[in-house]
Amino acid sequence: MEKRAGVHAFEKFRYINTVNALAGGDITKWNQILAMPYERILTKLLLNKTEAEYQKRYGELAP
Length: 63
Description:
This protein has 4 helices and no strands. It has one domain. The relative contact order is 0.08. The chain is extended, with a radius of gyration of 14 Å. By secondary structure, the chain is an all-alpha fold. The protein has helices at 2-5, 16-22, 30-35, 38-61.
């Protein structure tokens, strides 16, 4: 479904997609994100992924 919606259009932005998401879409926070240690960024991305997977599974269980 994402491919049909055109998700590939975002590929040209590469890592900025992740920076923008972590900054909550606030361009004034991009430098703060870029200055953070990689370990912190990776931990946050893993947390986001785990939360999304949980929400998906939870939604599938709801009547």
